[in-house]
Amino acid sequence: MKVMAFVGSPRRDGNTEKLVKAICKGAKERGHEVDMYHLSEMNNKGCIACDACQRQKVDFCSIDDKLTTLLPEIAKADCLIVGTPIYMLHVSGETKNFLDRMRAFLNPDLTTNHLPGKKYITVTCSGAPAAQFSNVTDYLNYLLDFYKMENAGNIIAGHLREKDDIIWQTKMLEEAEALGRKLS
Ligand SMILES: Cc1cc2nc3c(=O)[nH]c(=O)nc-3n(C[C@H](O)[C@H](O)[C@H](O)COP(=O)(O)O)c2cc1C
Fold first, then answer.
1. Distance 87 CA to ligand 1 centre (A)
2. Mind listing the domains of the chain with CATH numbers?
3. What is the pLDDT of residue 99?
4. Which atom of ligand 1 is nearest to the CA of 128?
5. 3-class DSSP state for residue 7?
6. Tens of pLDDT, residues 38-94
7. Mapping DSSP to helix (H, G, I), strand (E, B) and coil, where does residue 123 land?
8. Does the beta carbon of 83 lie inside 6 Å of ligand 1?
């Protein structure tokens, strides 16, 4: 299984990255091929609403950046992991740009290409208690389910302020690793 993991936090080695890495560790133990990407280090642009993807003028996206080169890889992957910190009550800007660019997989009649049947796992990290931002996980599930992807788990972590705080939430890290190990 080919797994692609996207970290939407600009804070290197922070809580989001640690949880995503724990899932990746489990997935690697299971023998899956795993690649992790830091969205904030890819210099990705936001969607420019050129509609080239909607008019089938391009294979995936007209924007000349790293994410466009990864879209065909995403099309070939079996599982996507999307991790985001909660910023101002929602996903981070990097994560939202990434999700907007997924429009490349949407047809004008709202059917979807390439993504149906792929698995996904989401991770959210907030300073507030986890339950306070479960709506963001609901949003991610709603969007990815709309793409007819299959939910393989959600990690919703809270009480995270300093970048190492998740280290003390050993059960949460174990849960993340177990999700990765369960992927099939
Ligand atoms: C710009 C910014 C906005 C934030 N907004 C919220 C918020 O609305 N609610 C919240 O609970 N935590 C908020 N936080 C805290 C982060 O969600 C939390 O520290 C998270 O663990 C960061 O993830 P990271 O460790 O991967 O960087 C914010 C942090 C930053 C830097």
1. 5
2. 2-182 (3.40.50.360)
3. 98
4. 11
5. strand
6. 999 999 999 999 999 999 999 999 999 999 999 999 999 999 999 999 999 999 999
7. strand
8. no
* Distance (Å, whole) CA 85 – CA 184: 26
* Token pair listed for 87: 């910023």
Is 83 within 8 Å of 19 (Cβ atoms)?
yes
Tens of pLDDT, residues 82-141: 999 999 999 999 999 999 999 999 999 999 999 999 999 999 999 999 999 999 999 999
Q: What is the whole-number distance in angstroms between the Cα of residue 126 and the centre of ligand 1?
A: 5
Task: Check if 11 has its Cβ closer than 6 Å to any atom of ligand 1.
Answer: yes
Q: Which of 177, 157, 123, 106 is nearest to 8 (CA)?
A: 123
Tell the residue nearest (CA) to atom 15 of ligand 1: 127
Residue for token pair 């190492």: 164
Q: What is the pTM of this model?
A: 0.98
Question: Rounded to an integer, what distance in angstroms lies between the CA atom of residue 121 and that of residue 140?
Answer: 10
Indicate whether residue 40 lines ligand 1 (CB < 6 A).
Answer: no
State phi, psi for 84 to the nearest 5 degrees.
Answer: -145, 140
The dihedral built from the CA positions of residue 113, 149, 81 and 127, taken in this order, carries a sign that is: positive
Ligand 1 mean position to 146 CA, how many Å? 27
Q: pLDDT value at position 155? A: 98
